[in-house]
Amino acid sequence: MSTFDVSGGRPPAAGRRRATGRSAAEAVPNRRNTELLMLLFAVAVPILGYANVGLAIDGTLPANILSYGLGLGVLAGVAHLAVRRFAPYADPLLLPLATLLNGLGLVMIWRLDKAGPLLRKNFPATTNQLMWSGLGIALFIGVMWLLKDHRILQRYTYISMVVALVLLAAPAFFPSQDENFGAKIWIRFGAFSIQPGEFAKIILTVFFAGFLMVKKDALALASRKFMGLYLPRGRDLGPIVVVWLLSILILVFETDLGSSFLFFGLFVVMLYVATERTSWIVFGLLMSFGGAAVVATSEPHVKTRINAWLDPMAAFGPNPPKQSSEQIGQTLMSLGSGGTVGTGLGQGRSWLIQFAAKSDFILGSFGEELGLTGLMAIFLVYGLVVQRGLRTALAARDPFGKLLAVGLSSAFALQVFVVAGGVTGLIPLTGMTMPFLAQGGSSVVANWALIAVLMKISDTARRPAAEPAAEPAPAIPEPAGPDRFGPPGYGTPGQSRGASS
Amino acid sequence: MSDLTLTVMRLGFLAVLWLFVIVAVQVIRSDLFNTKGAARTAPRSTAPAPAGAGRPPQGQGAPAAAAQQAQARQRRGQPTHLVVTQGSLAGTTVALQGQTITLGRAHDSTIVLDDDYASSRHARIYPDQAGQWTVEDLGSTNGTYLDRQRLTSPMPLQTGVPIRIGRTVIELRK
């Protein structure tokens, strides 16, 4: 028998912890070098596109190709260093994928800047967009640095609900302006404006995740079966009705079809994931169709969109109907002229999409110049971002992290679907931005923050289990009362309340 | 700029774009298999850490190399994974690397139980001095059951024996 076997106690904790820490670092690859390589690739692709545009339009390489490349490279490099420092085990793909999309968006915006007066209301936006991307990366690093653990967010469940509601409601109180294109979703401070809805998306997901984590059992189990569907109790149904009404109110007061669809869809997805009850999806679909039908018949702005969706070409006819718009028709034509492999960067006529070719309809511009082949690649990149997010949710060990990752990635997916579906005429068009690609400061900044939170969750999930908290103080057992996150009265019958043993 | 160059660039750009997507998918693929590989190799490299505290049955006089070999042999019979088989976390796997695994509703637990019958700090699973995995109840309200028997003191864990905490069932696997 060895000498250490006498006491029967535990081996020295410090030594063991040090040992596991060291071996974990050795054994589990943290994939940061893969990320660096992918990042180099992701910066190289937009630079190639940039050169391509310059050659096609001016016949020479663009003069500032070096500074553009360096700018994008430095942004990506700084973000990479921040990941190495603050989230060493994070997913290796999220950052390169986001960088590629952001870079491609910059190229297309620059290309449309060069179209000059051919594009209506064309003012150079590349510098601004680059600046916003920088700000987005800064926020990315800030989130990485300040958010030590995503579980901290759980403490702010109800605060984030209030913040999100304030952000969502704020634009309704600001005076409407001409350039708002029908939807009141901007807040203006002098020269620049922000879209608080983009940030509300993330904050609301935090609320949903925190709320559902506490409530999911009540929602899943306490229900009556009725015609094959599980009907939840009234008090559990309350929140979903409130969110539904809220999204309808956004629609009515701010006429923002996209956001209300996004928020409601997000809540339904998260409810489904949390409770595993199909009935929620049925309810969700019924309620969203009901809400959309009511609003579509009453709101003129929404009605125009629906008309344009039902008959995109009507606006080009000899006597166009009053409530119609030619945007979708123009986009469909640009997609068609792109064909399978596209006209090539810089060789299309994307300015023929008269309205918002750089922002809402940037997919049309891409579809024309890169064709179906390029558009499919872009959609796949979006799909990979969502896949990495859902993978993170699967790997996460805590329910809050799981729900948050699912929520953030489905918000991202829903937004891509809403924009792509709208632009291609699958669903009625809604004024939302394509994440990272489209011109628009708030969108870029908010989506970088979203990626940062996802990476932070994946860092926790993929980190080998050698956490400092792995050594509890066993001498002081915690009181095992009812769920301390739940409201009083929410507990399981089998649990003795407040008993500490 | 000649048409040929532009055509080559146009198709080249699409090719590069797709190459990026394909490489990204390859990274995902290697990621899938690498994590498994890491889980398989990690316990072996950590083996000396817990067992070094006193497992070798040959006694303290045995040469270090022989002791290590013996450990390696024993390691092979040792569990490498902790698997949640029932409850809301069913399917979760934690690689055993010689560290203590805490179970409970507290956020800093290794496995955060989302179970109304679980206490904040419910139980822990750790290798004892002899490197034998052991489960200990940390004074939970509803108790920890090792194969239908409520734990009153730390008990050695065998592979495949279910530990029940509320609605959650956990077991060690090789």
Automatic annotation (TrEMBL), chain A:
<keyword id="KW-1133">Transmembrane helix</keyword>
<keyword id="KW-0133">Cell shape</keyword>
<dbReference type="InterPro" id="IPR001182">
    <property type="entry name" value="FtsW/RodA"/>
</dbReference>
<feature type="transmembrane region" description="Helical">
    <location>
        <begin position="130"/>
        <end position="147"/>
    </location>
</feature>
<dbReference type="Pfam" id="PF01098">
    <property type="entry name" value="FTSW_RODA_SPOVE"/>
</dbReference>
<keyword id="KW-0131">Cell cycle</keyword>
<protein>
    <submittedName>
        <fullName>Cell division protein FtsW</fullName>
    </submittedName>
</protein>
<feature type="region of interest" description="Disordered">
    <location>
        <begin position="465"/>
        <end position="501"/>
    </location>
</feature>
<feature type="transmembrane region" description="Helical">
    <location>
        <begin position="63"/>
        <end position="81"/>
    </location>
</feature>
<feature type="transmembrane region" description="Helical">
    <location>
        <begin position="156"/>
        <end position="174"/>
    </location>
</feature>
<dbReference type="GO" id="GO:0005886">
    <property type="term" value="C:plasma membrane"/>
</dbReference>
<feature type="transmembrane region" description="Helical">
    <location>
        <begin position="36"/>
        <end position="57"/>
    </location>
</feature>
<feature type="transmembrane region" description="Helical">
    <location>
        <begin position="370"/>
        <end position="391"/>
    </location>
</feature>
<keyword id="KW-0472">Membrane</keyword>
<dbReference type="GO" id="GO:0032153">
    <property type="term" value="C:cell division site"/>
</dbReference>
<feature type="transmembrane region" description="Helical">
    <location>
        <begin position="93"/>
        <end position="110"/>
    </location>
</feature>
<feature type="transmembrane region" description="Helical">
    <location>
        <begin position="194"/>
        <end position="214"/>
    </location>
</feature>
<feature type="transmembrane region" description="Helical">
    <location>
        <begin position="403"/>
        <end position="430"/>
    </location>
</feature>
<keyword id="KW-0812">Transmembrane</keyword>
<dbReference type="GO" id="GO:0015648">
    <property type="term" value="F:lipid-linked peptidoglycan transporter activity"/>
</dbReference>
<dbReference type="GO" id="GO:0051301">
    <property type="term" value="P:cell division"/>
</dbReference>
<feature type="transmembrane region" description="Helical">
    <location>
        <begin position="280"/>
        <end position="298"/>
    </location>
</feature>
From TrEMBL, chain B:
<dbReference type="Pfam" id="PF00498">
    <property type="entry name" value="FHA"/>
</dbReference>
<dbReference type="InterPro" id="IPR000253">
    <property type="entry name" value="FHA_dom"/>
</dbReference>
<feature type="compositionally biased region" description="Low complexity">
    <location>
        <begin position="37"/>
        <end position="72"/>
    </location>
</feature>
<dbReference type="InterPro" id="IPR050923">
    <property type="entry name" value="Cell_Proc_Reg/RNA_Proc"/>
</dbReference>
<protein>
    <submittedName>
        <fullName>FHA domain-containing protein</fullName>
    </submittedName>
</protein>
<dbReference type="InterPro" id="IPR008984">
    <property type="entry name" value="SMAD_FHA_dom_sf"/>
</dbReference>
<feature type="domain" description="FHA">
    <location>
        <begin position="101"/>
        <end position="151"/>
    </location>
</feature>
<feature type="region of interest" description="Disordered">
    <location>
        <begin position="37"/>
        <end position="79"/>
    </location>
</feature>
<keyword id="KW-0597">Phosphoprotein</keyword>
